[in-house]
Design goal:
Elements lengths: L1 H9 L18 E3 L2 E13 L4 E13 L8 E14 L6 E13 L2 E6 L19 H6 L1 H4 L2 H8 L5 E9 L2 E12 L2 E14 L7 E13 L2 E13 L3 E10 L5 E11 L4 E12 L2 E14 L3 E10 L6 E9 L1
Antiparallel strand pairs: 1-2, 2-3, 2-17, 3-4, 4-5, 5-6, 6-7, 7-8, 8-9, 9-10, 10-11, 11-12, 12-13, 13-14, 14-15, 15-16, 16-17
Length: 321
């Protein structure tokens, strides 16, 4: 596990500022039984010491012909997570997640290299500071360890995943393994979400939580996530708490919000806090987004924080499925 640890520690995650929570995915796009979800983003960033262009794409395609509530269907899914900094520095990687999918009613089993349930499907998807580059830098503090390691270290995990829906409750379990380049590591994840739908006068509430376990060469650590989100036609508010014993032994808290002025214009704000062995990072910011052509967007943000962080700027254009 030494190579993985070196890559993670060398990324300087606790020194990477981030602040604005912004929805990443739309409602999905379906055509002929093929469903596509995710986003592609091209941004210009300036963090006080570096600036330039950055591209990020995080997409999922699923094909489940004949899938019904009472039937059995066989299909496939393919995920792609890629990132590139255009001056050739930091990241230029891409990871694929292909899997065969067996669906039976409200249950699915995916075999091959599916996403971890700690990465996709159960936690609200947000992007810090409307900036895909910051979002990737903070991956270990708010996303799956498996997905971060697979992208930044160019590993190819394989495994199995189960998803089940029970009325308004969703339950997911996944297990993965990395066994290449002298590294052997196992990843186990459990995630649950429950939604209280709006009755017209109250916002929709979603409660979620989960755990991801990492095992490798005597290392056995559990990372925990717990949160709640409220959403209506006009606003979105969320609180996310986490404990990350590995690799930083950090505790995190995030409060974020979004207000929709009209069908095209929205504003966001959030505060993110991480503490590790007495070293605290608090970052805050505001941002705005303008959507057009249904799924295209143009966004910008300004963020700042403690520990002598420079003011952060980002402008992005992208497409959300």
């Amino acid at each position: 596990m030494s190579r993985i640890s070196w890559i993670i520690l060398g990324a300087g995650l606790l020194s990477a500022p981030a602040a604005i929570a912004q929805p990443v995915q739309g409602s999905g796009f379906s055509l002929g039984g093929v469903n596509i979800s995710g986003y592609a983003d091209l941004s210009y960033f300036d963090d006080g010491t570096d600036n330039g262009g950055f591209g990020r794409a995080d997409l999922d395609v699923e094909f489940m012909p004949g899938n019904t509530a009472n039937g059995v269907a066989l299909g496939f899914s393919l995920g792609f997570d890629g990132a590139k900094q255009f001056d050739g520095n930091v990241i230029s990687q891409g990871t694929f997640y292909p899997a065969l999918v067996l669906g039976f009613g409200n249950h699915k089993v995916s075999v091959g290299a599916p996403r971890s349930v700690a990465n996709r499907g159960y936690y609200p998807e947000t992007m810090f500071a409307n900036n895909a580059r910051f979002d990737l830098k903070l991956g270990l503090l708010r996303d799956s360890v498996l997905s971060y390691v697979a992208l930044t270290a160019d590993y190819h995990p394989y495994g199995i995943r189960y998803d089940g829906t029970f009325d308004q409750t969703k339950v997911g379990v996944s297990t993965h393994r990395i066994d290449e380049s002298g590294i052997t590591a196992n990843f186990y994840a459990l995630a649950v979400s429950h939604t209280y739908h709006s009755n017209g006068s109250l916002p929709e509430l979603t409660f979620y939580g989960g755990v991801e376990r990492v095992e490798s060469a005597g290392l056995e650590k559990n990372n925990y996530t717990l949160g709640v989100e409220a959403e209506s036609d006009k606003f979105r508010l969320g609180l996310k708490l986490g404990k990350r014993p590995w690799p930083y032994d950090a505790r995190i808290a995030e409060v974020y919000g979004k207000y929709q002025f009209n069908t095209s214009l929205s504003a966001t704000a959030s505060v993110f806090h991480a503490s590790r062995r007495g070293a605290d990072l608090t970052v805050y910011g505001i941002g705005a987004e303008y959507t057009f052509l249904n799924n295209a967007y143009l966004s910008g943000s300004i963020a700042d924080g403690n520990n002598n962080l420079d003011t952060q700027y980002a402008v992005s254009i992208g497409w959300r499925f």
